[in-house]
Write a structure and sequence with these properties.
Elements (H helix, E strand, L loop, with lengths): L1 E6 L5 H17 L3 E4 L6 H10 L1 E4 L10 E4 L6 H9 L3 E4 L3 H12 L5 E4 L5 H7 L5 E3 L17 E4 L5 H14 L4 E2 L5 H14 L4 E5 L5 H12 L3 E5 L15 E6 L5 H11 L3 E6 L15
Parallel strand pairs: 1-12, 1-13, 2-3, 2-4, 4-5, 6-7, 6-8, 8-9, 10-11, 10-12
Helix pairs in contact: 4-5, 7-8
This protein binds iron/sulfur cluster.
Length: about 300
């Protein structure tokens, strides 16, 4: 069997930064350090940091008074910062700068009607939707667009980890109803590059394995994108999750991984599948680095 590895795959700049923030904070302040929400949506990463002393909290209210708390890469609503302040917590903010950019857009266009294309309940959408008054359009639901004047100058924002093609469809639908709509392109470089690479894989393989956690939005989107191009796809974080799958007769298997998936998990799948040949598909993305918060520089 031949393996086709998508490029780019795996960690994005926002995830590298978030993990580095936790590790540097542990070095500087010692364990335990608290993390509000999973620092990134990958069980392996969260468990690994937990072993080093980073305790994940579901809610900021669980943080002990006066402790150090890192806010996850997905962004947080302003109320969490207020609660942290009232509990005298030291906040270290690991919100990805590309999510902060969407928060800033929401604040900038606060005087206009805003539609956020995003998945209700996802941590990033919870954070963005709390920055200004907005209507959330969730493409998994049976939506109707809000009933504004057709010449309304509304602004369309989006969650950073959605499917590029599905989001464009919704944006076009909004644009045809509201001709003055300002469409911001908020899907991040890492998500769109990984989707482009998985589309390239679909023309070459019988099955695509997306490596990552099931609660990772960008991983779920990669699986859906592959399937929308007619290629069977699995989403798993470790080979044990797919060992029951019948690989018999599959000659070409593609592998990609989400923006929060460490490369060691890709190695685990390669060792499990034991391919006769490995082909690299796609092109490397530009090296992007984000600066760390000042207190950890
Ligand atoms: S997927 Fe994009 S928005 Fe999310 S952490 Fe990575 S770079 Fe930032």
């Amino acid at each position: 069997m031949e393996l086709f590895l998508a490029t780019p795959r795996g960690f994005c700049a926002g995830v590298v930064r978030a993990i580095e923030i936790v590790e540097k904070a542990l070095n500087k302040y010692g364990a335990p350090i608290y993390v509000k929400h999973e620092i990134v949506h990958n069980n392996y990463v969260v468990d690994d940091l937990a072993m080093k002393g980073a305790i994940t909290l579901k809610d900021i209210n669980e943080a002990p008074i006066g402790s150090t708390v890192i806010f996850s890469a997905h962004g947080s609503p302003p109320k969490d910062y207020k609660i942290a302040k009232s509990k005298n917590l030291q906040i270290i903010d690991a919100t990805c700068p590309l999510v902060t950019k969407v928060h800033n857009e929401a604040k900038k266009y606060n005087d206009k009607k805003i539609i956020l294309i995003g998945h209700k309940g996802h941590q990033e959408v919870i954070g963005t939707a709390a920055q200004a008054d907005m209507y959330i359009y969730d493409d998994r639901e049976d939506n109707t667009l809000p009933d504004y004047d057709s010449d309304e100058e509304l602004v369309v924002l989006s969650q950073t980890t959605l499917s590029v093609e599905d989001t464009n469809k919704v944006a076009n639908q909004i644009k045809s109803k509201y001709k003055n709509a300002i469409i911001r392109n908020d899907i991040c470089y890492a998500v769109s590059n990984r989707q482009k690479a998985v589309i390239e894989l679909t023309g070459l393989v019988d099955l695509i394995i997306v490596i990552g956690s099931t609660n990772s939005s960008n991983c779920v989107r990669l699986k859906e994108v592959a399937e929308s191009y007619g290629t069977k796809a699995l989403l798993a974080n470790s080979p044990s999750e797919i060992e029951e799958y019948n690989f018999h007769g599959l000659l070409k298997i593609g592998i990609t991984s989400g923006a929060s998936t460490p490369e060691i998990l890709v190695d685990n799948f390669i060792n499990f599948l034991k391919p006769l040949k490995i082909n690299i598909i796609g092109t490397e993305e530009r090296d992007i680095n984000f600066t760390l918060p000042l207190e950890l520089e």
